[in-house]
Design a protein that fits this description.
repeat, about 65% helix, mainly alpha, Mitochondrial carrier fold, about 325 residues, 10 helices
């Protein structure tokens, strides 16, 4: 007896007959779907460099006047130097600088940070991302401790790289001459090298204070920002989501300012002009903090806090938002 060949199923007949039971077929995965495109570690780092440089440039150009005022306030001691204006607060400093030195004096010392911002932000963000796995401590996802320790590490490494630029910047910002009469960035750098060299008395003066300032700042900044951002639900509306990130970034920068400003005051005193020519009064981070506390009181350790918060509160929001949006744009553009 020969076997009857199998006939193909008439699906139209099945659909037309209500009495015929339906056959359920599980949906098959799309066999030709392309896997999601992975970005190599080198390309990711390059995109972070570009996004970080953009964030740093924008933040510096907008916030430099407040950085200059902050440095002037921190360099000012209780004793008034002959022939020098004494600043009675942030707005008084703005007014006197404008009258005596001109509008462009608020951008004194801007070239060193502009030159340094691309590698500085690159170091900051790349080191932060690369060191996060080291501080997971077995957790399945990054914790607030992970973000804080990665931020601390990134800040310390960043400080070592940018300290020579900071020394030149502070020297320029401390100069009270009119903008037309002020020495150029290159001449200031050359004078420091010729006089004091590249060591801890020259271009690397105050490096430990810079490490303390940047390390503590980034520990609080990244730790708070990423922990809170991941905890607070995101908005589907783009405008609301933008302002959510702005608020978290502003709060992160403000809190970090309150915590790290004693290191910032010590850094300005160490890197700035000494009260008495030829005598190094401020040397060493904690020693300088101690001198300021004993001679000028606890409040002196928070000199320049208002302009610092005015700069790094919104500046912190600007930097993180520009970085995130620039990085997202670059990923879509070049990935």
């Amino acid at each position: 007896m020969s076997a009857t060949p199998t006939q193909p199923i008439n699906t139209n007949a099945l659909n037309a007959s209500p009495s015929t039971p339906a056959v359920l077929v599980a949906p098959q995965p799309h066999q030709h779907a392309l896997p999601p495109k992975e970005i190599s570690a080198l390309k990711r780092a390059a995109l972070q460099v570009m996004a970080g440089g953009s964030a740093g440039f924008v933040e510096v150009c907008i916030m430099q006047p407040l950085d200059v005022v902050k440095t002037r306030m921190q360099l000012q001691t209780t004793s008034k130097a002959a022939g020098e204006a004494h600043y009675n607060g942030v707005f008084d400093c703005f007014a006197k600088m404008y009258r005596q030195e001109g509008l462009f004096s608020f951008w004194k010392g801007i070239l060193p940070p502009v030159i340094a911002e691309t590698p500085k932000r690159a170091i900051k963000f790349v080191c932060f991302e690369q060191t996060k796995p080291l501080f997971m401590f077995g957790a399945p996802a990054p914790t607030p401790l992970t973000f804080s320790l990665a931020g601390l590490t990134a800040g310390i490494i960043e400080a070592i790289a940018v300290n020579p630029f900071e020394v030149v910047k502070v020297a320029q910002q401390a100069d009270r001459s009119k903008m037309k009469e002020a020495a150029s960035t290159w001449s200031v750098a050359r004078r420091i090298v010729q006089t004091d060299g590249f060591g801890f008395s020259g271009l690397n003066k105050g490096v430990t204070a810079t490490m303390g300032r940047n390390g503590v700042f980034n520990m609080v900044y990244f730790g708070f920002y990423h922990s809170v951002k991941n905890s607070v639900p995101a908005f589907e509306d783009n405008t609301k989501e933008f302002f959510r990130k702005v608020l978290i970034g502003f709060t992160s920068g403000t809190l970090a300012c309150f915590v790290n400003i004693p290191f910032d005051v010590a850094k300005s005193r160490i890197q700035g002009p000494q009260p008495q020519a030829g005598v190094i009064k401020y040397k060493g981070t904690f020693r300088s903090i101690g001198i300021v506390y004993r001679e000028e009181g606890f409040r002196a350790l928070y000199k320049g806090l208002v302009p610092k918060v005015m700069r790094l509160g919104p500046g912190g929001a600007i930097m993180l938002l520009v970085f995130e949006y620039a990085y997202e744009f670059l990923q879509h553009k070049f990935a």
